[in-house]
Amino acid sequence: MRFLVRDRILGIGDDYWIEDERGDKVFLVDGKALRLRDTFELKDTEGRVLVDIRRKMFALRDTMVIERGDEPLATVRRKRLSLLRNHYRVALADGSTELDVSGRVLDREFAVEYDGELLAVISRRWLTLRDTYGVDVVREDADPALLIAVAVCVIHLAEKERED
């Protein structure tokens, strides 16, 4: 499954649509403006919230939490620094599963893996539109909403780090 993310369409609160391969709107990333901490909601086309994404206020390293229905789903934080690539760790709420995110995040060229197996590729390579990138969910049994939320978190954390 491939999704097209039109990043940061000049709306208040950083709202933007995510489309499927046919160009149909599938998800809305709804940035909540005027909040004390960075908050996003990933919604379906009918406005139902699929996952909440929040930046943790008090953490040693920048951390974002993904929740589904008030239940923690995953925690995203920077793993380590490398000269050429960014690395982030996604700890799922079950406590035993971790996803690895690595690549050039600010360039929108990175991958999400579980135990060495590719789950999703985030890339601008096959697109010509400015401020647009693709999320290619490789595994059919993967949760697209979770993987898109992970991409949103990682990009947001990398941009915040660059600003600081």
UniProtKB/TrEMBL annotation:
<protein>
    <recommendedName>
        <fullName>LURP-one-related family protein</fullName>
    </recommendedName>
</protein>
<dbReference type="InterPro" id="IPR025659">
    <property type="entry name" value="Tubby-like_C"/>
</dbReference>
<comment type="similarity">
    <text>Belongs to the LOR family.</text>
</comment>
<dbReference type="InterPro" id="IPR007612">
    <property type="entry name" value="LOR"/>
</dbReference>
<dbReference type="InterPro" id="IPR038595">
    <property type="entry name" value="LOR_sf"/>
</dbReference>
<dbReference type="Pfam" id="PF04525">
    <property type="entry name" value="LOR"/>
</dbReference>
